User: Fold this.
Amino acid sequence: MHVTLSQRQPPPLPEFADESRIAAEGQKDGERNIPEMGSYTPAPFEQALISNGEQAVQQIFKAASSRISKLRPVVEAYQRQLDELQRRIRPIAEAYKVRSAELGRDAMIVFPRVFHWALIAFLAVGEFPLNTVVFRLFGEAEYLTYVMASTLAITIPLIGVFIGVHVRHVVPKWLGNLLIGILTPVVVAATLYAVSLLRNTYITSQFSGNGQVSAEGNQMAYALFALNALVFFAATVASYFAHDPDERLDGFHLSLRTLDRTMNDIRTKLYEVGTQLNGEIEQAKSQIEQIRALTNQRVQLYRQSNIRHRRLLPPPSFRRDAEFPPLPWWPEVSLNNHHEGK
Assistant:
């Protein structure tokens, strides 16, 4: 939710506060010794000046309160979400520290999660056209071909993800690395052979003169199997290296990363809305201070004119500053820790 910071100027004081009239009223009251020499109560005209100034103050205060009341619930909602996430992340962080101390190490993530899921998405996209070619051989409707091709394009990489995670957590580290080291060159070699086979078949068809690609069924089946195996194996290896060998430590690490990312997003939103809220408060306070400073100047002008035309000593009320009614100021939002996660 975004509320634009108001740029309104303070409303002008009424003509009642015109300087010439203030001086005239001060002269008239001074000649009549109003207020009396021992009075602690401001003169009626001085009270009227303060009252008129406070009318403008109340207009600013009311308008600012309306805008602040729209921002305050948003800030409080973000703050509650942040507090809840901090409550949830605290025991997970403690459990992570305990498990890390037991193992004598932190989480070992060789392949970052961002690149891991980017690779899985890329494999799924690359798998789709390959499966489309295969299912078109059945001669079914085009939409059925796309449905089956997309199903396999999603299923094969995801199964590889689950198997890679399972192998990482269950199989001993040395055995898992050994399997990866053995299977990687085998799968890559088989895929290169399949690609070479398809390339030779295509080149042969170009020189045959009819332009038709003719390949034996077994060769085509092997080539498609090798390409699908490469997609599956790539997803498995990526998931294997994107997780920690210890299942508990890996789970704690994933939870911490997820919650911390969510907290950073909420901190950013809270900082933005909180800055808007504090800006509204500061602007309203500044405008009110300007109005009251101007009112105080007019009160001093009235008193000076009054004193110049008095026959008696000025009253004690003239030795005190103009008194303004207190306002229930809005509390500002503390942003000291909310922008650290940005």
